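Hi there,

I know you've been waiting on this one. I reran it after we fixed the sequence typo, so this is the corrected version. Both the input and the resulting structure follow.
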Amino acid sequence: MKTAFAILASLCLLTVGLCAADKPGFVPHPVTLTFYVTGMECGTCQALITQSVKEVKSVTDVSVEIIGSYVNVSFDTHVSSAHQIAQAIAETQPVHGRPFVATMKISVPDYAKDGNADKVDAVFAQRKEWVEVELLDKAKGEFIVHFNPLKVDESKNAPQGWNPGHFGHAVHDPAPKGLGLAFALKYEAPYAPAPKVAVGKK
């Protein structure tokens, strides 16, 4: 399985209620993000999660990888949020007796350098009502984002809850707006099975 860290060098501001697709001057922001999902074991899981996520506004593609336990979702973060995608996955009917749980992985490579840890932790704490951030590797600055339950108002045509830009701007933007540190989301490339090798007859 190949993985890549997509550096968010120019994130658009992602705040609740900022943009709606029907407002004049609306600027779309299409992305494809990876959600790591526990509880997926079979084709039924795959079908149900796909159906549930496709009901979220602006979603254009859903790729569920059972082998790697992740879901790649293409959507517009100026219409819906990563939090709404995670909530849709959490609300999917369980197949094997336990709910599906979606997380995301982020990195701040310079987290452990020059007193950055306290500053980055303060940024994460600002959104604790929406997400909880778990430190995986301090030296590498790798984290898991756990989503808190979100009550989605279907009448709103704007992102609700947490989006990567809530951390991305505050961490990546130059001072005084941000910390001026690299910020990345972990992305999983679509799974590709090994090609079959034809065996010639002797």
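Quick highlight: Residues 117 and 189 are 29 Å apart (CA to CA).

Best,
R. S.
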